[in-house]
Amino acid sequence: MPRAYLDHASTSPLRPAAFDAMLPFLAEHHADPGRLHAEGRVTRVAIEQAREQVGAAFGARPREVVFTSSGTEAVNTAVWGAIARTPDGTVVTTAVEHSAVLDSTGRAPAERVVVGVDAVGRFEPAEVLDAVDPSCALVSVQLANHEVGTIQPVVEVVAGCRERGVLVHVDACTANGHVPVDFHRLDADLVSLSAHKLGGPKGAGALLVRRGLRLEPFIVGGAQERARRGGLESVADVVGFGAAAADVTGDALESEAAVARRRSEVIADAALRVEDVVRYGDPDDRVPHLVCVGVGGVEAEPVLLALDQRGVAVHSGSACSSETLEPSPVLAAMGVDAEHSLRVSVGWSTTDADVDAFVSAFPDVVASLRALRPS
CA-to-CA distance for 171 and 192, rounded, in angstroms? Predict the structure, then answer.
């Protein structure tokens, strides 16, 4: 039976353009791009071409692109680099950030201020800016939420930080490849990106660093990335990131987003037709590919497993679905029960048949599980 993969918000399959671009650097071109011989120059040119592609896709100059091993590393680089500049300063963030932000800011020596959110998981810019004091080392906010899809008012936060002379980092890993991300128009100091969220390879990310801003490298031990990130570059992954980013820019991004929104709305409509199912997050101002619902009367884990048996792969913010065995802090901050949440997300490779598989299976799965409850 063909399976329906509806967990693109966790990771998306590799795009054919990325696969094709990566193959020569897995099979033939193996040299260190820091070397001057012909083999090294081949891999250096490939990395710089990918840097141009990522910069063009996200409104940045090529020199503002620092390649990392993941979006998580990009976030940590931003947080730790900012704190190294102002060791005694505070860090301001929000309760619905990704664990990469919450964990790195929580372990930092700086004092952390965490701002709450409303019922759809959106923070209030004025509350974030009210938490900024003269000693603030960094404000770190997300562009879109990874659990419920709500798009955040980052423009106002960035503008306020600029007025106050405070560094601001925007985590765009959930948003990249799904909504437009323009580094220069956003005017942030730092923006983190993730390749595998948009159909690039796992093992590649980037931190966009505003021209003229110098941060201490998070990973040391080499002068790669213009001395901004030590370690031999994973050339194939970088090349794949560039190709995937180039594949989802401009009209292609707009077209994919429109299809994703249509498909995710079909999923949401089908889920909400089932009794005692509610929607989490902003239903309108959201990333187009992600829907999160709460299923009353039955915990998410058996729903997830029953859907899996029916050939449908989805995700939940429940403790049983988490690597940490803790429920989603995002949903807790919103005041909803993570143990009943189900996140369904589409992507570039999703078909209408995949959506139909969920629409067909979900009502029967929920009804069967509810029938098992004691009367």
Answer: 5
Residue that the structure tokens 């040391």 belong to:
220
The dihedral through the CA atoms of 147, 153, 158, 161 has a sign that is negative
Kindly state the DSSP code that residue 7 receives in the 8-state scheme.
B
Listing DSSP states for 129-193 in one string gives HHT--TT--EEEEESB-TTT-BBP-HHHHHHHHHHHT--EEEE-TTTTTTS---HHHHT-SEEEE
* E strands in the chain: 4-5, 65-68, 91-94, 112-115, 138-142, 168-171, 190-194, 205-209, 277-280, 290-295, 312-313, 341-345
247 alpha carbon, distance to own chain's centre: 18
Contact between 12 and 356 under an 8 Å Cβ cutoff? The reply is no
When the pLDDT of each residue in the chain is averaged and rounded to a whole number, the result is: 95
Per annotation, catalytic residue among 136, 161, 292, 320: 320
**Cα distance between residue 175 and residue 154, in whole Å:** 12
Full-model pTM: 0.96
Q: Are residues 282 and 359 in the same domain?
A: yes
CATH number at residue 133: 3.40.640.10
Residue 324, pLDDT score: 56
Q: Is 320 a catalytic residue?
A: yes
Q: Is residue 213 located within the same domain as residue 269?
A: no
Whether residues 243 and 264 share a domain: the answer is no
CA angle (306, 312, 313) in 5-degree steps: 95
Residue 274 has a pLDDT of 98
Q: Are residues 52 and 154 in contact, defined by beta-carbon separation less than 8 angstroms? A: no
Which parts of the chain have pLDDT scores under 50?
Answer: 319, 321
Residues 6+ apart with CB under 8 A from 103: none
